[in-house]
């Protein structure tokens, strides 16, 4: 690895930390390299940018973003919260449990931690405070449980990892299901322990009756069918991810327009504008990072990283632990999407060399980088929640600590026992 | 009341990407429907949708520059004294404007070289599709330069 590349990487990270938007920090660093190097041209850089984006499978991202935005703006979130209220409201720390269950269900539709955390922070945190929960705890549980979304289908991170690392997106999607359920269980257990110690009660005096549950289920039946449809579509193997994504987009639109009557022309126009902006801000980073990834290829970075790791150990579990530590630290200072896009091909190379299943690697990296969104300085989920609830970062971090410990313990367990992630993709034979 | 350049920019970097999103959804949905119902596909459907998608991403990114919604880390600025924070924000905007300007030049050169090559399906000169790169980077450079100018005016006024 040349000194030029090391200087370039340091410069890029410093620019990001000083507030330069990620895409321009990456483009600036790539330009610096291409303009300083001997054998490269900026035209090659443009070639990399346009080739990376001119990909039909990538279209799945705006389609799923569209579906998630329709769900968020089409009043579906409120119905799902009402459903979660009926299902777990009678548990200890009932409202916090509602937040976790809501994240699990909403996550299976939106794939976005920020969108999910924002709904919880806006709707559930004020209710939790009225019931005597501390602001820090309410904000922390909203943020921590939102980590379920990026691990569940239709996760944008998993799609990006699959396309960049040439790993089956369908397998990654199925592989994310069990870890997502485990995140929910970890969060619910921690909520239960804290609620018992602080005497946070339930919000319902008794568990719901059969008719109550049926009524709540009916109210959001069409919305709940979307993840089911997605998993069945994946399992059938009849559709590509892009085709499934467009079906999901049309399905959510049909549910919001015809069944719930919450989306009209004006809302649809806003949803289209939001979809374009959200997709552009993520994928322009991908285009910029493609230019940088090519530099990695020129400098044979994957080979250097692999030989460096091999010098430390050939044991895949040691390698996974080292990678997890490095990504956790990096995820705290650099935006997760940028790391994912830059590092996916390198990580798949490492996985192949050390005999790690690429599906396990994809799910681990996604969870790992998503944990970084909870912590300063780049914690986008933390900032979203704190800016909505008005919670101070210090108080948020104090209350987040047990959730963070639980999530990191889960990350280590998923690294050490690959079967937790892999048994479902193997069982469904995707 | 917004100025004419603002309204034109909004049409190019907000309305057009939204329309392109709708176009892509309809095109791919029609393709899936036709393939499964009649065993046929929309002519040039994949090619058109992928080029429309690239246009959407680039024009949308220009809109993100205008609206200042690109992903960025802003924790440190909030903790710095206001003058330093404002200076840092202005420096970041200047950096973005310079990078976007260099990219405008590079992508213009790239687009100019592609007029004699044609797309695979429709066999149209690639320059038509690639002109979105200099156009978008040009808009981004303009947007960031405008942010700097506005920040300077605001600083002088305060």
Automatic annotation (TrEMBL), chain B:
Entry's Gene Ontology cellular component terms: plasma membrane
| Spans traversing the lipid bilayer | 12-34, 46-66, 87-108, 128-149
Q: Which Pfam families match?
A: DctQ (PF04290)
Domain Tripartite ATP-independent periplasmic transporters DctQ component: from-to ranges: 24-153
MF terms from GO for this chain are: kinase activity; transmembrane transporter activity
Where in the cell does this protein reside?
A: Cell inner membrane
Name the PANTHER family on file.
Answer: 2,3-DIKETO-L-GULONATE TRAP TRANSPORTER SMALL PERMEASE PROTEIN YIAM (PTHR35011)
Q: What do we know about how this protein assembles, alone or with others?
A: The complex comprises the extracytoplasmic solute receptor protein and the two transmembrane proteins.
- What is stated as this protein's family in its record? Belongs to the TRAP transporter small permease family.
Described function? Part of the tripartite ATP-independent periplasmic (TRAP) transport system.
Name the record gives this protein: TRAP transporter small permease protein
**Gene source species:** Sinorhizobium medicae
Write the lineage as a comma-separated list: Bacteria, Pseudomonadati, Pseudomonadota, Alphaproteobacteria, Hyphomicrobiales
């Amino acid at each position: 690895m040349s000194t030029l590349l090391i200087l370039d990487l340091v410069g890029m990270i410093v620019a990001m930390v000083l507030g330069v938007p990620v895409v321009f920090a990456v483009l600036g660093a790539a330009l610096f390299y291409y303009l300083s190097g001997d054998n490269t041209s900026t035209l090659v850089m443009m070639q990399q940018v346009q080739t990376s984006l001119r990909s039909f499978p990538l279209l799945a991202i705006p389609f799923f973003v569209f579906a998630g935005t329709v769900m968020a703006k089409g009043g579906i979130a409120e119905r799902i919260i009402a459903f979660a209220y009926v299902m777990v409201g009678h548990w200890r720390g009932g409202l916090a449990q509602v937040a976790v269950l809501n994240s699990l269900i909403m996550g299976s539709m939106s794939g976005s931690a920020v969108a999910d955390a924002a709904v919880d922070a806006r709707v559930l945190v004020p209710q939790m405070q009225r019931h005597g929960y501390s602001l820090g705890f309410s904000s922390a549980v909203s943020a921590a449980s939102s980590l379920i979304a990026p691990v569940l289908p239709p996760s944008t991170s998993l799609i990006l990892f699959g396309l960049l690392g040439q790993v089956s997106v369908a397998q990654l999607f199925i592989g994310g299901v069990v870890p997502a359920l485990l995140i929910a269980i970890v969060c619910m257990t921690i909520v239960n322990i804290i609620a018992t110690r602080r005497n946070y009660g339930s919000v319902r005096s008794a568990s719901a009756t059969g008719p109550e549950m049926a009524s709540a289920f009916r109210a959001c039946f069409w919305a709940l069918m979307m993840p089911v449809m997605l998993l069945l579509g994946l399992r059938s193997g009849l559709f590509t991810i892009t085709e499934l994504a467009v079906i999901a987009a049309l399905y959510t639109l049909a549910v919001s327009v015809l069944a719930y009557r919450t989306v009209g022309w004006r809302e649809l126009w806003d949803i289209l504008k939001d979809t374009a902006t959200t997709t552009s801000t993520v994928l322009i980073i991908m285009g910029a990072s493609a230019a940088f990834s090519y530099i990695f290829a020129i400098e044979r970075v994957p080979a250097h990283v692999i030989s460096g790791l091999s010098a430390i150990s050939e044991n895949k579990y040691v390698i996974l632990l080292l990678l997890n530590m490095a990504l956790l630290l990096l995820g705290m200072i650099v935006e997760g999407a940028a790391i994912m896009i830059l590092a996916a091909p390198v990580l798949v190379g490492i996985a192949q060399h050390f005999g790690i299943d690429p599906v396990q690697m994809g799910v681990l990296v996604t969870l790992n980088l998503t944990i970084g969104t909870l912590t300063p300085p780049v914690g986008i989920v933390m900032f979203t929640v704190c800016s909505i609830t008005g919670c101070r970062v210090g108080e948020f971090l104090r209350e987040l600590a047990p959730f963070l410990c639980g999530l990191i313990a889960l990350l280590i367990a998923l690294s050490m026992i690959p079967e937790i992630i892999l048994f479902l993709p193997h069982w469904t034979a995707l | 009341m917004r100025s004419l350049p603002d309204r034109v920019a909004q049409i190019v970097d907000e309305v057009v990407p939204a329309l392109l999103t709708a176009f892509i959804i309809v095109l791919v949905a029609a393709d899936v429907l036709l393939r499964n119902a009649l065993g046929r596909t929309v002519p040039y459907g994949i090619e058109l949708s992928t080029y429309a998608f690239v246009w959407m991403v680039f024009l949308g990114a220009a809109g993100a520059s205008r609206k200042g919604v690109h992903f960025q880390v802003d924790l440190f600025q909030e903790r710095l004294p206001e003058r330093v924070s404002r200076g840092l924000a202005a420096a970041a905007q200047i950096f973005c404007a310079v990078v976007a300007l260099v990219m405008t030049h590079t992508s213009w050169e790239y687009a100019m070289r592609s007029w004699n090559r044609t797309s695979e399906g429709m066999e149209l000169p690639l320059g038509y599709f690639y002109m979105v790169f200099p156009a978008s980077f040009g808009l981004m450079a303009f947007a960031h330069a405008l942010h700097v100018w506005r920040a300077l005016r605001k600083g002088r006024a305060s």
